């Protein structure tokens, strides 16, 4: 090559250089072109076009700001760009279902969505600007959007107490407690409702045959063919005992091991022999026992199976176990000892201690032992001989391996701590942290949780977890509760956002405290936010009820709502006990909104009572919901004896605003004048059983003595 040609560029090289330049320009153009066609830009243009078709165009466009819209919550480590596409999220005029997504307004919630954004509740990838990246699981992001039916889980991340707006979350937490999941797993803010029975003396309570039957079929009622006649769980009355995967050999071994526990001696039944001799002469002794069983409203807590036609149903409560066949289950001596003092056998039992007379106790136990039985109950149980040492050793090993000691107490046996995995942070786990095994389920957290509950072996063939039979509704509820568990705040800024669960602070002392514990009042009633929901909240009972009425009611409970199935049992309370309870409630359980001393009953005249009667019957038609005598509705309480029952100051405040005294009550708030309030109060005070209205009105007018 000559010197002159050394500086020349060949045509081929020029062409290569030109093509490379064009390719470079194309590559550079990809980014702006791709940015120009971003999904969020199209949504913004569509939003502007849609807003221009609305009557409130100016206001909608005034709130519109083109470009990336983001909410930054540094204390929560959240960057949220969802409102870039969801432009109408806070526009009330766009809440109609006809508004297309993603422009429709968010339904009303307690939080301002413009301040809190979307990912706090809906999860997903907040910084993303592509729909697929924001909503779905990607290689870079493993937290997809939370399906709407599980959205209440996000409320539970901060709100550790139950909320009226989150019934599914509340139910899930309740189930985690009632099913005693905390016995094996560490769960965030979940405490067991009650452990399983103490088995230290189970060999004296039950036979080996019954234990075998129960371990094989822990259902409510199973027929001779093995079919479940009544599935207690679907009736919301399933025992907490789940279904374990046990072979016949393992069941025999466990039944052998459990029958060896007979440590606590049962005191012989100490009935007055003259009472027994007298009652044994009665041909209808079992019938008398059934009458007393029903008079004491045992079915308020316990259910019985009733067959009507071809259908068998459980009738009664679910606080205690179902009793249809209990006479074929328990030892008669144990039954008498249990009814006399349940806590001597099981200290944390919810069963109250009744003041039984020998006559009543003998009648009821005879009814249970002769009528609540099933001679065929144990017909399919194989012959079981005396337990062998090998069976007992195997049973002891299985008792520990299966985690039985996590729920049941046996004296001298220490349960294994953290028997199951820690679930306190399950809701924040990524898919890559989960073990799906060879299961054929979608790879996401929700599918994993539900498979783990319904079929533990599907995701882990070596799982020790038993199988639960849950309705789809309750399965979703438990899933929601577990999704809400994120392990707690990781810094002080997040800790300030957590609303803790209120700790029960009602622990009465003294004579009332002993009675409160003896009769298990908190199982049915609430006191200062703590207790059950089966019966009325007694937090303000001293402001509501007159002391003499409380005393009489405790001695002989009467129903205030005839349509209710559940009634307060008859505890055979003594006069002194009734007086202690009435005095305590009258002095302590007071509402700040009710001033008892501010009302002088002399101000209520017969003329006011007559006006009140007209208001009650004609203007406001209160008899549509309330009964007086034999006339009226059954929605509200019976007012036939309201003059002896309710305090005048309570009646007045109730008429002015029922929600102040009992939040959530169905009693409507009416715009009553002060004169109408006083007239209605005067009339209600005349409603006293056993007296004509006119006589009572005159008595009330003279000072209300009675």
Can you characterise this structure?
The relative contact order is 0.07. The longest helix is centred in the first third of the chain and has 26 residues, at 11-36. By secondary structure, this protein is mainly alpha-helical. The N and C termini lie far apart (133 Å). It folds into five domains: 39-145, no CATH class; 167-193 and 420-490, Cytochrome c-like domain (Cytochrome Bc1 Complex, Chain D, domain 2, Orthogonal Bundle), CATH 1.10.760.10; 202-371, Cytochrome Bc1 Complex, Chain D, domain 2, CATH 1.10.760.10; 510-588, Cytochrome Bc1 Complex, Chain D, domain 2 (Orthogonal Bundle), CATH 1.10.760; 596-701, Cytochrome Bc1 Complex, Chain D, domain 2 (Orthogonal Bundle). The strands form five sheets. It has a two-stranded antiparallel ribbon with strand order 1-2. Residues 220-226, 228-239 and 691-706 have low confidence and may be disordered. Helices cover 39% and strands 4% of the residues.
What is the count of helical runs?
30
Number of domains: 5
Shape: flat
CATH superfamily of the largest domain: Cytochrome c-like domain
Which residue ranges are poorly predicted, with pLDDT under 50 across at least 5 consecutive positions? 220-226, 228-239, 691-706
Reported CATH architecture of the largest domain: Orthogonal Bundle
- Rg is 34 Å
Fill in the CATH topology of the largest domain: Cytochrome Bc1 Complex, Chain D, domain 2
Largest sheet, described in full? 2 strands, antiparallel
Q: What proportion strand?
A: under 5%
Distance between the termini: 133 Å
* Sheet/helix structural class: mainly alpha
Please tally the β strands and state the result. 10
Would you state the CATH class of the largest domain? Answer: Mainly Alpha
- The percent of residues in helical segments reads 25-40%
Q: How are the strands ordered across the major sheet?
A: 1-2
Summarize model confidence as the mean pLDDT.
Answer: 83
